[in-house]
Amino acid sequence: MVSSTEYGSHTWELLLRVDHQHEDVEKEFLLQVTGDLHVGGLMLKLVEQIKIAQDWSDYAFWWEQKKCWLLKTHWTLDKCGVQADAKLIFTTQHKMLRLRLPNMKTVRLKVSFSSMVFRAVSDICKMLNIRRSEELSLLKQSEGTLKKKKKKDKNSKEPATEDILNLCNSPVSSGLPANPGLYSKTMTPVYDPVSGSPASSTITWFSDGSSTEQNSSILALSHPNCSPETLAEMYQPRTLADKAKLNAGWLDSSRSLMEQGVLEEDQLLLRFKYYTFFDLNPKYDAVRINQIYEQARWAILLEEIDCTEEEMLVFAALQAQYHVSKLSLSSETQDSTCESEVDEVEAALSNLEVTLEGGNKSNILEDITDIPKLADNLKLVRPKKLALKAIKTYWFVFRDTSVSYFKNKESAQGEPIEKLNLKGCEVVPDVNVAAKKFGIKLLIPVADGMNEVYLRCDNEDQYARWMAACVLASKGRTMADSSYQPEVQKILSFLQMKNWTMSSQTASEPENVDMKPECFVSPRYTKKFKSKQLTARILEAHQNVSQMSLVEAKLRFIQAWQSLPEFGLSYYIVRFKGSKKDDVLGVSYNRLIRIDMATGDPITTWRFSNMKQWNVNWEIRQVAIEFDQNVFIAFTCLSADCKIIHEYIGGYIFLSTRSKDHNETLDEELFHKLTGGQE
Predict the structure, then answer these.
(1) DSSP string spanning 66-98?
(2) Which of 96, 207, 205 is nearest to 161 (CA)?
(3) At 276, is the pLDDT very low, low, confident or very high (cuts 50, 70, 90)?
(4) What's the structural domain count of the chain?
């Protein structure tokens, strides 16, 4: 029975569950509350009822039915919508989480389960000493990618606890403020720029104790490759549909971990989601560079990105360089840093930065009166029906963002046979250095799809100049752009790494070198070559990179990865409005590509620089985008939630606003405005 005074005061009973570790204390409490009681008052009332003397500052209410946190402590229960049937759990906001890093190492750390994922990732990166946290996010492995593992690992046990690096006592993980000095551009270098080994000042970033230096080196240095058997057990995508599964599990950056069903001690993947690696600096970014290198290495070993045999051997040689250098590296060489090596690393870095067009206009040195041009004899290859190709030499002139070709040099003053506008086209290298084949495949957007044109160059220098011009023109830039010469040098250095000859010395070396070649290439090439053949070929390629320092080898590996045609593409299966069949949508840092699911051929490309606006119809889960020249597209996503693609587009546009001149604090509000959506 309820007394008349209690009945008249509009009180009601609310059952609260407390998530604490004291076994002898009750976990459920029934409180008399009113609708005008604020959340903070409810907390106070509950703590008084629990009667346990401990720090409750990290606790908050989790509303189980609504899957949301009650973090606005000044709001009343009425305003929150809490009624007598609400199941509220009083639990900690920071919980233990296992993260698998790009180098396949697992770390265990305390993470905020109540903050938005964008903020949680920022805190995680501070713990791991990774700058530019906006480039990373958290990924749930989809069921499809786990099936193969489950079949193989039925009898195997869970990984031993010693394989997990425990960082739960680090300053940020314990709730202490991070040291802002780590993000200062004028700070003392925390890593040796040549060897990549952590300097002593880095120790403060990790937990106290004797294992501190070991912990930091696990993140900053590469470790022996896994066995071919282990590699064979891992998920390897065979088709574009398989590759789409890899990108289905990105968490929503605008919601918390708990809201997305992540539980304490769950395992997630920490990965670089956005392929725009800004302001890489070997003095401060040893962990970041190593993790980018590792993500690239595993993408190549697991064939998540396609490359030619020649390119695979270059990647193997760069990994072998790291392997060989690590064996020969002594404490004396770690202490001595050569200025020339540092200069080489910094030169390599200048080629690694990827910026969205329109991101930083101050770097574009356009001289209207004297825009450079290229003019030379090239072979034009046009694919014809019945698999025949017509190859003919013409005089080509490259001016602005267009290529014109003429019958010969003398007729160049007249009208061209054809003028090709390369803005928005796809540029694909078609190179085999050993066979002296230097081709450029151009896929030029036309009304009914893509027009294929092949250009053949005579030598490396000619190829590098024309290829660089085509790449810039596809982004709407001319050869007057300041990035033209670095692009030429990047292409030449990659060709140089591919250019090797067999010497008598390397022929006799394979037996003397302790190397498992199967660890450096994807399973496809392990099946193609015998072990001795593979070792010999890797050592041939290794001659061109044998003088590189460890960090430079990593940077060159990342650079070579960025040169691959499929670099930076995240795939999704979509259905375009008005279409009767499914297509694949490739999302890159500067464009969207519609790809034929059966053949893998690009159908159309749309560049972000031409995009006017985009929006999402949340009721039918449809993404609609408007481009220049009255081009409209709309599609629904079949392999993932449309919010993931929406966040990708907004995220890349957000990253294009970054500048070295600005303060390094991120405009988090702008990120959520561009990526959050209005569900």
Answers:
(1) TTEEE--TTSBHHHHT--TT--EEEEESEEEEE
(2) 96
(3) very high
(4) 3
Structure tokens at 567: 């670099």
Residue pLDDT, tens place only, 563-597: 898 999 999 999 999 999 999 999 999 899 999 99
* Residues 450/594, Cβ–Cβ less than 8 Å: no
- Residue 92 φ then ψ, to 5°: -70, 145
* CATH code, domain carrying 617: 2.30.29.30
Q: What are φ and ψ of residue 602, in 5° steps?
A: -65, 135
What per-residue confidence (pLDDT) applies to 557? Answer: 93
Spatial separation of the C-alpha atoms in residues 77 and 395, rounded to whole Å: 77
Distance from C-alpha of 498 to C-alpha of 620, rounded to nearest angstrom: 49
Specify the pLDDT at position 145.
64
Residues written for the chain = 679
Q: Residue 671: name the closest of 268, 176, 121, 129 by CA.
A: 121
Contact between residue 625 and residue 632 where contact means Cβ atoms under 8 Å apart:
yes
CB atoms within 10 A of CB 224: 9
DSSP track, 341-362 = HHHHHHHHHHTT----TTS-GG
Whether the CA torsion 605, 608, 610, 614 is positive or negative: it is positive
pLDDT at 128: 92
The predicted model scores a pTM of: 0.82
What per-residue confidence (pLDDT) applies to 215?
61
b/e burial code for range 132-170 (CB count within 10 A of at least 16 → b): bbbbbbbbbbbebbeeeeeeeeeeeeeeeeeebbbbbeb
Q: What are the Cα distances from residue 357, in Å, to 68, 589, 653?
A: 39, 10, 10
CA–CA dist 404, 417 (Å, integer): 7
Give the end of a domain, one of 479, 510, 527. Answer: 479
- 182, with CB counted inside 10 A (0-12, 13-18, 19+), is middle
Does any domain span residue 581? Answer: yes
Read off the pLDDT of residues 433-444 as tens digits, 9 standing for 90 and up. Answer: 888 999 999 988
Q: Which residue has the tokens 């267009």?
A: 402
R_g over Cα of the chain: 28
The token duo for 467 is: 């290829």
Contact 149, 234 (CB under 8 A): yes
With respect to residue 473, please indicate whether it lies within any of the assigned structural domains.
Answer: yes
Distance CA 458, CA 439 (A): 9
Please, are residues 119 and 136 in contact by the beta-carbon 8 Å criterion?
Answer: no
Please give the Cα distance from 150 to 152 (Å, whole number): 5
| Backbone angles phi and psi of 272, in degrees to 5 | -75, 115
Question: Could you write out the three-class secondary structure of 556-578?
Answer: HHHHHHHCCCCCCCEEEEEEECC
Is 195 inside a domain boundary? no
Residue 554 carries which side chain, given as an amino acid letter? Answer: K
Residue where a domain terminates, one of 461, 479, 497 = 479
Strand order in the sheet with 94-100: 136-139, 267-272, 94-100, 106-112, 164-166
Burial class (CB in 10 A: 0-12, 13-18, 19+), 448: exposed
Q: What letter would DSSP give residue 10?
A: T
CA pseudo-torsion sign 169, 173, 176, 180: positive
Residue 243 lies in a domain: no
What token pair was written down for 546?
């044998």
Question: Which tens digit of pLDDT belongs to each residue from 493-544?
Answer: 888 888 776 444 444 454 555 678 888 888 888 888 888 888 888 888 888 8
Q: Which domain holds residue 612?
A: 570-675
